[in-house]
Amino acid sequence: IANPNVAVGGGSGTVTLRLTVTSGANPVCTAATSEVTVTVNPNPTASAGTAPAAQCLSAAATGNTFSLEGSGTNGSLKWTVLSQSSTGLSAVFSNDAIAKPTVTVTGGVSGTVTLRLTVTSGANPVCTAAISDVTVTVNPNPTASAGNAPAAQCFSANGNTFSLNGSGASGTLKWTVLSKTPSTLTASFSDDAIANPNVAVGGGSGTVTLRL
Predict the structure, then answer these.
(1) pLDDT, mean of residues 36-55
(2) Are strands 71-73 and 45-47 parallel, antiparallel or unpaired?
(3) Per-residue pLDDT for 61 more than 90?
(4) Which helix (DSSP H) or strand (DSSP E) does residue 151 occupy?
(5) Which candidate, 117, 111, 140, places its Cα nearest to that of 130?
(6) In the predicted model, what is the mean pLDDT of residues 170-189?
(7) What's the confidence (pLDDT) of residue 101?
(8) Angle at Cα 92 formed by Cα 70 and Cα 116, nearest 5°?
(9) Which residues, in sequence order, are CB contacts of 137 under 8 Å at separation 6+?
(10) To pair with 134 at 20 to 30 A between CA atoms, which of 1, 122, 177, 185?
(11) What is the pTM of this model?
C-alpha cells in the first residue's frame, strides 16, 4: 500500500526506505523508485556522578571547593543549585555548562547543597530533558570550651572535688589530664565523656590542668 506505518526499534538512528512501483503493463515499463528517511532522535542522558567526599568547614573566606564528576549525552549540559540546607550557603560553579566543573560553597556555615545536572535535547523534535542530582556536604568543625576555672579550694586530706562546666558540639567529648604540678598529684573524672563532670584531685596541693 502507499501509506503504511513502519515500526523502528533497537535504538536511535536513521532508516532509509524505498518505495518501488513496478509496471503491470505489457510490455513492462521501467519501474519507478523513491526514497524517504525516517529518523529516531536519541534521548538525552544525565548523570551527576558520585557525591564528592564531605569536607570540614573551611575557615578561609574562599570556602570549600568540590570537584564534580558528571556526564551527559545527546544535548547541552547545565548545572544549577537545586537546594541548600541553610539560607547562608551559596554555591558557584567554575563552569556550569561542562560535565566536570568544580563548585565552591561559601557562607561560613556547615550544611548540604544539592546540585542538578540537566541535559537538554537539541534535536528536532526536542526529546525530553534528562536530570540527575548530587549533594555536596560541608561538615561543622567541633567546638570545645573547658569553661571557667572552678574556684580554688583549701587542701583536704580526703581529696578535693571540683565541678567542671565544659561544653562542646559537633563531636564526641573527652576530658584528659594535661599536666600536674607537682607530678605526684592525682586527678580522676566522675565521667570523662560528658561536658560537666566532677574531677577529684588528691595527693596534695598544687594545680592540675585539664583538657576537653
Answers:
(1) 96
(2) antiparallel
(3) no
(4) none
(5) 117
(6) 97
(7) 98
(8) 40
(9) 51, 54, 55, 111, 112
(10) 122
(11) 0.83
Average pLDDT over residues 139-164: 97
Grid coordinates standing for 115?
546540585
CA atoms of 92 and 103, how far apart (whole Å): 5
Per DSSP, the residues of the chain read: --S------SSSEEEEEEEEE---SSSPPPPEEEEEEEEEPPPPEEE--SPPPPEEPPSSTT-EEEE---EEESSEEEEEEEEESSTT-EEEES-TTSSS-EEEEESSS-EEEEEEEEEE--SSSPPPPEEEEEEEEEEPPPEEE--SPPPP----TT-EEEE---EEESS----EEEEEESTT-EEEES-TTSSS-EEEEESSSSEEEEE-
Q: For the range 89-93, what are the long-range contacts, defined as Cβ-Cβ under 8 Å and sequence gap of 24 or more?
A: 89/113, 89/138, 91/115, 91/136
Are 117 and 72 in contact, with CB atoms under 8 Å apart?
Answer: yes
- Looking at residue 59, what is its pLDDT? 84
Average pLDDT on 39-43 reads 94
Collapse the DSSP code of 64 into the 3-class scheme (helix H, G, I; strand E, B; otherwise coil) and give the result.
strand
In the three-class reduction of DSSP (H, G, I as helix; E, B as strand; rest coil), residue 17 is classed as strand
User: What cell numbers appear for 189 in the block?
Assistant: 573524672
Cell 596534695 appears where? 204
